[in-house]
Amino acid sequence: MRATELARSLFDLLLPRGCVACGGWIPDARASSLVCDRCRSRMPRAPWPRCPRCHHPLGTGRRSEETCRECTAWPKALRSARYAYVLGAPADDLVHALKYEGWRELADEMGRAMADVLLPADARSAALAVPVPTTAARLRRRGYNQAELLARSMARALDLPLVTVLERTRGGSTQVALHPSQRRANVKGAFAVRRGLAPRLRGAHVLLVDDVLTTGSTAGAAATELARAGASGVTLVTFARALPRYRTSSV
Ligand SMILES: [Zn+2]
Ligand SMILES: [Zn+2]
Predict the structure, then answer these.
(1) Pairwise CA distance, residues 8 & 39, whole Å
(2) 229 C-alpha vs ligand 2 centroid, how far in Å?
(3) Domain-by-domain residue ranges, the chain?
(4) How many whole angstroms from 33 Cα to the centroid of ligand 1?
(5) How far apart are CA 183 and CA 172, in angstroms?
(6) How far apart are CA 63 and CA 115, in angstroms?
(7) Collapsing DSSP states into helix, strand and coil, what is residue 233?
(8) Which fold has domain 46-246?
(9) How far is CA 229 from CA 77, 200, 219, 243, in A?
(10) Secondary structure (3-state) at 162
(11) Which ligand approaches the C-alpha of residue 34 most closely?
């Protein structure tokens, strides 16, 4: 058990657990949940109309058939993207708690929310769910890949097999401070299909799973690799999408 998890377990013994997002009290009857009803009802959704391919909001007065600037640079293999919430409070608290604070149990609830997202027609017959792999260094540090935990929960809810088809072939430094074109260069060739698993992909539509969609460059690189190994198409499903202009509240 890692030190942070041990500390948290001790903490749980001493104090009743509050909501992961606001710290508020959760009544006993709902003790299995990590998020309070108020926070759950405040999860920010993206406004309509949205781009049919990537679901980025198009802004009022625009029609859904107009071209979206957000996904034009995506490779063809990444057919579409869907996300449950906008990366704003309190959804961002959940993302942070799962990724950096060791709240792996949160993935159950977050993955179920992702399974409820309405998929485009070609993705409804998806054959498998594939998590975006993290780097070996991050896996060692964190002890788990949050995308894989989300994919497992989502796949269970959708009754789909989860297959860890992809591996990270090189590190790829953090993407946070990079310009979109730099992000693409940073992750280009960063993924490979694991030995022996290409047959699982042949002719299959894949649901690629990650926690957050930012520019789509990571998903684009992963989708390109999946298509190269024979996947017929890829739909990215994430828990949240970073939409700076549509933030509903400050962090
Ligand atoms: Zn709360
Ligand atoms: Zn788009």
Answers:
(1) 22
(2) 25
(3) 1-41, 46-246
(4) 11
(5) 9
(6) 27
(7) strand
(8) Rossmann fold (3.40.50)
(9) 11, 9, 15, 31
(10) strand
(11) 1
Residues whose CB falls within 8 Å of the CB of residue 209, separated by 6 or more in sequence, listed in order = 114, 129, 130, 131, 132, 147, 148, 150, 151, 154, 236, 237, 238
CB atoms within 10 A of CB 62: 13
Which residue reads 């957000």 in tokens? 70
- Ranges of H-type helices in 20-145: 37-41, 91-100, 106-115, 136-142
Between the CA of 64 and the centroid of ligand 2 the distance, in Å, is 10
pLDDT digits (tens, 9 = 90+) for 144-196: 999 999 999 999 999 999 999 999 987 655 666 667 777 777 777 789 999 99
145 CA distance to ligand 1 centroid (A)? 25
**Position with higher pLDDT, 241 vs 190:** 241
Residues lining ion ligand 1 (Cβ < 5 A) are 19, 21-22, 24, 36, 39
Long-range contacts, stretch 47-52, CB < 8 angstroms, 24+ apart: 47/246, 52/80, 52/120
Place of tokens 């997202």: 117
Ligand 2: distance of its center to the CA of 77 in Å? 14
Tokens of 93: 């608290």
For residues 41-49, average pLDDT: 94
* 132/149 Cα distance (integer angstroms): 11
For the question of whether the overall pTM of this predicted structure is more than 0.85, the answer is yes
